[in-house]
């Protein structure tokens, strides 16, 4: 087991095979992408480019894997971040306009001490550690990423949650002047996500402020994002401005958009296919062969007990 007291970390070794993005892109979404791109070109948005300057971070080593990390260039250039466009290269192209300082995160709701945290003060107040996690996208591709951050449970503890805190709701920045994708109704903006409280305070759930030992690039969710390694990547909401402890299950962006396809839990599960493609295999970015998808993305030893007794086909 993962020992948060001693810092002992297990070594995970899995080798498996995959499918291409073209195999899983819905025609309707493709047409919406074409409409988005055409409109962006008309507004002169296609060539904004640029990235915020990355700064080195001080951190300790934490949870890891012996799997080879995905090259940094791939991690920072192949992204889903619809606030900047719907194609994989759009975030790196368009996110440079986002201003990440000053930046605050409001943590409120069912708690005794709601607070607004400044990002720089938050980073200084929390011990940062590197965690090398697998990331599995619902589209059928995956990466291995060395994140730098701190456990979400520490941030939640700081506001002293009450017994009414059953779920945690997250919200992304809403700023269409800089996040140009928000000018189009691809999703209901601002982007929202949610976790059950026991998922949120699990030791593996991370607030990431960096990757590859440096501050997060804008296209990867600067200045802070959620990382929940046993769930599909869209659950790991980016550029967070608000976290609320709530009593009822909160609405989430992709579930609102297509509830039959994207459930609230969205645990990685090779036995439960997406309605339009299989989830049994995945394509690791940088590899040609396909590999088997692992239940809970390979983290079942640490998280499966959270779902004991649940029908994971019903609660997908």
From TrEMBL:
InterPro entries in alphabetical order: MsrP (IPR022867), OxRdtase_Mopterin-bd_dom (IPR000572), OxRdtase_Mopterin-bd_sf (IPR036374), TAT_signal (IPR006311)
Catalytic activity line of the entry: L-methionyl-[protein] + a quinone + H2O = L-methionyl-(S)-S-oxide-[protein] + a quinol; L-methionyl-[protein] + a quinone + H2O = L-methionyl-(R)-S-oxide-[protein] + a quinol
Enzyme Commission designation: 1.8.5.-
Molecular-function annotations in GO: metal ion binding; molybdopterin cofactor binding; oxidoreductase activity, acting on a sulfur group of donors, quinone or similar compound as acceptor
Lineage top rank: taxon: Bacteria
Every Oxidoreductase molybdopterin-binding domain range: 99-254
Cofactors, names only: Mo-molybdopterin
Record note on modification: Predicted to be exported by the Tat system. The position of the signal peptide cleavage has not been experimentally proven.
Job of this protein: Part of the MsrPQ system that repairs oxidized periplasmic proteins containing methionine sulfoxide residues (Met-O), using respiratory chain electrons. Thus protects these proteins from oxidative-stress damage caused by reactive species of oxygen and chlorine generated by the host defense mechanisms. MsrPQ is essential for the maintenance of envelope integrity under bleach stress, rescuing a wide series of structurally unrelated periplasmic proteins from methionine oxidation.
Name of the protein in its database record: Protein-methionine-sulfoxide reductase catalytic subunit MsrP
Organism the protein comes from: Caulobacter radicis
